[in-house]
Amino acid sequence: MNNKNSGHIDVRQFSSDKILKHIDRVDAWLKGENPYPVTVEIDMTNICNHRCPECSGWYFQDKGHDSLPLDLAMDTIRQIAKAGIRGLIFTGGGDPLCHPGTRDAVKLAHNLGLDIGFITNGSLINRETAALLLKCCRWIRVSLDAASSKTFEKIHGMDGDTFDKLLDNIRLLVKMKKEAKSNTTIGIGYLTSRHTKKEMIAASIICKKIGVDYLQFRPLQIHNNGRFEYHRTDGIEKEILKCLKYSKDGYNVLYSKHKYDMMKEKNFGRNYEKCYGQQFATVIAADARMFVCFGGETKMLIRHKNAIRYLPIRNLENIDLRGAECILNGEFFRIKSFFSRKCKKRGELITILMDNGVKLRVTLEHPIFTDEGIKEARELTGKEKLPFATKPFETNLGNYELGRFIGFYVSEGFMAERYITFSFNEKEKEYIIFLCDFIRKNFGASYSIYKKPQDHCIVIQVSDKSIESLIRTFVSGRTSNEKHLLSKCFSQSIDFRKGLIDGIYQGDADLKTNELHIGSKKLAKDVCCILATLGIPYSFRICNKGESYKVRTLKRPEEANLAGGGITKYEYLQDKSFLWVNIKKIIKPTFKRAKTKYKIDKKVYDIEIESPAHLFQLANGLIVHNCCHMRGNEKYCLGDLKKNTFEEIWNSKQRKKAVENIDFRDCVPLCRDNTFNQILWNIKQPREHVNFL
């Protein structure tokens, strides 16, 4: 079962030509048969106790969430052993040791004669676990990726104590291996990037002193808006050559040379046109049906090329999102990935109505951040609270006076062919004086002012192209029912946005109750989103059967517990970072063809943000959890082990179709299959002069 040459690692295990060791299966495949895979990876869980910013895994803390049920995992292992699979790798997803049943699964796989590999962050290894792994596994690889607590915190998102504990756990593994005279290979994984480059030599020395069998360098993979990229750090290979000098006395410093070479080549060295590797290796995810997305109308705030863009999430498909960031409670974080997919059936989205009038539409599997922890949308009971942002973000554009002027146009102005007209109540003298002074001082424009006694109002008219052009950069639409705010409003400073809100409210609101009545639903929602960027609580209500809309604000946090005007059941929890609002109603999909006021979505959208807590903020201020397509990209879902056996799935039309339609744009460029794919492609395709070696 275990390596015969204890103390001397066979580096060929990292070579791409190891596929030829399984020539019987390659031969069967060449004959048109459908041999079972050589290797299966199993994700016992998507839960992980580390917070690596670049990881594409799921980050759920609830015990048992998105984990393979133990009875299903055990039955699956029996099935793959019966099918003649040769290697089983426990990986993730999350960390396999976060699943309470992983140890039992490892025992079973060992007893059934499977070769076992085990990949872990190492933080949960204890004496009992170490003894089991050393008895059952051919190899164990621990992810270190740093040589100091400072770098470890940056790469793994964990503090220095965790780093020290991890080193102690690796020492424990090495010590127990020697005591048990085990032949299990203990390796350390080290992902190279601009953050870890400086510590590669130090890591080589640390690992040698601890006594592991090898340290392996691989390039760190990052997700960039649906594309997979790598840190192309200059000088990495020079550092690797320095590290190789420490390979001696049974300790090896290794690196995936082919991956570093392919990073330099066009299309990452892919000289093949089809992926044949999926015939020989496959993955069992913790939840093969994990497809999480938002409805296309969901509004987002994106910082892109030094400007804030306010747009529906569906519009992100038309933007190059490299370098783009998404907001979370006053800060911006990089967008890691963005995907879309077609809805499988009518009414696929669940609708969550909040007590403040906000509506969220997501797929049933989407993770929802609640006061009771993270739940799938389908698991909500309606008794939970959801968080809203309380912190504003700042820019250096615009000022209060400009914002107030635009606000007055929104509330009291309209644009005719020749004039821009503002209309105020005759008692609103302060507003009239402000407007006239602003026009005169900033534009030097002339204006006319007259009184309409029958309406008790004062009318100001100005005809100036520069003023018209300025307004059009912030507001679209001429009349009250047509107006809505443009992205430019969201790119301005806090002072501008405060001025904008004051201008709108002073023109149209009941200032005693802070209630604003607007005829345009689009504009009402835009105002709510501006309030959210300032951290101001609000409520949104539909009035008169959709003929008008009411927005009420609370400008002081202590007012958050006041009832009336639709603002109720707000609550601050813990450090007041978020304002928690009750769920009012949950409308679950019925999948019937009955008439519904909710539109049928053709697509849903999946986004993942590189934020510390794996959260991000919608334009309306609602804090939501990251999406992540991970291995659950439906296009490549081979089947569901809850419904079919491994054998049925492997021989199914669904699997055949998924494998035949693999699109390299969805794949990791330097994936596990890449290297032996090239070998398989060369074998499969006829070549001239093949007999001349």
Rounded mean pLDDT score: 81
Percentage of residues assigned to helices: 25-40%
Distance between the termini: 36 Å
The count of DSSP E runs of length 2 or more, i.e. the number of strands, is 35
* Number of H/I helices: 18
Biggest sheet strand order reads 9-6-5-4-3-2-1-10
Provide the low-confidence segments as ranges.
1-8, 58-64, 288-292, 556-575, 591-599, 628-632
Q: What is the strand content?
A: 25-35%
> Shape from CA axes?
elongated
Give a brief description.
The chain is of the alpha+beta class and 693 residues long. Helix 2 packs parallel to helix 3 (102-111), helix 4 crosses helix 6 (160-180) and helix 5 packs across helix 6.
Name the descriptors.
693 residues; alpha+beta; 8-stranded parallel β-sheet; 6-stranded antiparallel β-sheet; 18 helices; 28% helix; disordered N terminus
List the helices and strands and how they pair.
Layout: H1 23-30, E1 39-43, H2 70-82, E2 87-91, H3 102-111, E3 115-120, H4 127-136, E4 139-143, H5 149-156, H6 160-180, E5 185-192, H7 200-210, E6 214-219, E7 221-224, E8 227-230, H8 236-244, E9 252-255, H9 257-263, E10 281-284, E11 294-295, E12 299-304, E13 307-312, E14 325-328, E15 331-342, E16 349-354, E17 359-363, E18 367-370, E19 373-376, E20 385-389, H10 400-412, E21 413-415, E22 420-425, H11 429-443, E23 447-452, E24 457-462, H12 465-474, E25 475-476, E26 484-485, H13 487-490, H14 494-508, E27 509-510, E28 515-518, H15 521-533, E29 538-543, E30 548-553, E31 570-572, E32 578-587, E33 603-609, E34 615-617, E35 623-625, H16 646-650, H17 653-660, H18 672-684
Helix pairs in contact: 2-3, 3-4, 4-6, 5-6, 7-8, 10-14
